[in-house]
Amino acid sequence: MNAPIVPPSAQARALAELNERSREIFRQIVESYLATGEPVGSKNIARMLPMTLSSASVRNVMSDLEQAGLIFAPHTSAGRLPTQSGLRFFVDALLEIGDVAADERDRIESQMRAAASRHTFETALAEASSMLSGVSRGAGVVVTTKTNARLKHIEFVRLDPGRALVVLVSDDGSVENRLLDLPPGLPVSALVEASNYLNARIAGRTLSELRHDLQQRRAEMEQELDQLTARLVEAGLATSIGAGNGRQLIVRGQANLLEDLRAAEDLERIRLLFADLETQTDVADLLTRADEGEGVRIFIGSENRLFSLSGSSMIAAPFRDGQQRVVGAVGVIGPTRLNYARIVPMVDFTARVVSRLLDGGR
């Protein structure tokens, strides 16, 4: 959208001054845009309103809304579309969000639990991404840290007297290496003993689960292992978990973004977005920003660097492990005219299901 830029202070004053009639007209403009993607004119708005207003009165209100930076005319003599600031105002102040229907809740939860029990937690995340894609007709995305991978094997490999490599092998075959500083005077046998101790307790757990279990059994561990080996076990898990950069991005439904393209600029927008999805880094960074607050976050257009070029939006919500630490996020990427009212509660519920799976299914 090539919408005009209005100074924030002027816009804030204009928003505060909107009366009920102006808000209703603005709501109709936004909802029409979200449904059709097309500009809407004063005559059609007048027909939609729950109150009786002439087209001329509607045009006067639309002029005020345009001056406030909430709507704009994409072409001369065209109807009006919401600006990015207008969409943000609508989402923050006027959006009426319902709840996920009971049958949809049951379907989401049963499909994800089945995927997690038959395969791995990563399979359940892929299922979440696919379901969100299907619901939104956009791209479903999930980002998670490698600490959520179910472990198959851990090994400590000495590199030199002061350093070792922690080798983590997951059920899905992925391998992650972390450097670890060794305690002074640690014998070679301690590395083997620490590896054996951990491998006897992995049993398909994630790193987070394994660390939590060992914290609960700290006294028992200190009885079984000498002091230096026990320190090595703790340091190896802490180093792996604390690194935090091993993120995994799962994207499903990119092809949905190619549907309903109306112009060459739409195709270019999607091309740019696809390029970002291929590199993954920016999308993972943006999803990680959902960790900063509770519940669902909505990123619209140029509010973030990733979408400033592609003109897209994302709805995302964090999920947590059994210790209530945020370890990832689920979301939907699509055009700015996403069905926010339907997708926001769906993303929120899916994130909560993932959190329950991580907390042992509770």
Question: What is the structure about, briefly put?
Answer:
51% of the residues lie in helices and 18% in strands. It has 15 helices and ten strands. The radius of gyration is 26 Å and the shape is elongated.
Summarize the helices and strands and which ones pair or pack.
Layout lengths: L7 H9 L3 H17 L5 H7 L6 H13 L3 E2 L8 E2 L1 H11 L7 H17 L2 H16 L2 E7 L5 E10 L2 E8 L4 E7 L6 H12 L7 H10 L1 H7 L2 H17 L3 E6 L11 H16 L1 H9 L7 E4 L4 H6 L1 E9 L5 E10 L4 H19 L4
Antiparallel strand pairs: 1-2, 3-7, 3-10, 4-5, 5-6, 8-9, 9-10
Helix pairs in contact: 2-4, 2-5, 3-4, 6-7, 6-15, 7-15, 8-11, 9-11
The profile of the biggest β sheet is: 5 strands, antiparallel
* Mean pLDDT over all positions: 79
The 3D shape can be described as: elongated
Percentage of residues in DSSP E strands? 15-25%
- Tally of contiguous helical segments: 15
| Termini gap | 45 Å
Strand order of the largest sheet: 7-3-10-9-8
- What Rg is obtained from the alpha carbons, in whole angstroms? 26 Å
Low-pLDDT runs of 5+ residues are 4-9, 241-245
Structural class: alpha+beta
Summary keywords:
362 residues, alpha+beta, 15 helices, 10 strands
Question: How would you characterize the overall build of this protein?
Answer:
Helix 2 crosses helix 5 (84-94). The protein is of the alpha+beta class. 37% of the residues are buried. Strands 7-3-10-9-8 form a five-stranded antiparallel beta sheet, sandwiched between helices. Strands 4-5-6 form a three-stranded antiparallel beta sheet. A two-stranded antiparallel sheet has the order 1-2. Helices cover 51% and strands 18% of the residues.
